Amino acid sequence: MKWIKKPEFSLFFIIIIFLSLLIATHWKYNVGWEAIVQTIGSMFGVLIGSFLAGRYAINSVKEQVNYDKEKVKQQEEISERKYDLFLKGHINIIKKCTRSIEFYIKEHETGLNVYEVDFIEKIEITINEMKNIFDRVYNIDPIHISFKQYKFLGEMYEMLHEIESSLEAYQSVTDEDDVRINAEKIYSRAKKLNEYAWNYSWSNKLL
Question: What is the spatial distance between Cα 179 and Cα 124, in angstroms, rounded to a whole number?
Fold first, then answer.
């Protein structure tokens, strides 16, 4: 047997008490049954009206709350899509920068320098350019950036820091093997960042 829900039980209990009082009034004061029936009808009308009005008010509030939640969710999704478009352009620049670093370090290691440029200086400039890009993509109201996007940016920035650390190590060592090892690290870490950016673009349809 299912228990009667609390609001319905309270209403039922009130009706029983009220009917008991009316019956007692009839026997004690000899009030006519017609008057009692009219009173009961009026009572039921008031109670049912109040009950329905209360239910309607509760349902209206619930619907409004659900509507507000859905509206906020839709607004967040729109903001994230807009930020994705903003992010897309900057990811493309980062991908070009990483390819440039791969090229510069390889050319520097050949020792030929047919382009007559300072490739290490070029790498430093490219790293600073990428830092400026991260400043721009981070300098957005957090409400427009999803957790997934924040995580992606954080991981990319860590990879950039690894490239910069490898470059500093490359410039500080003199042993030929250490130079070669750090040059390889610069190349492989730039390639890793490039691939990570490509994979994010591909999985989020930002190509």
Answer: 17
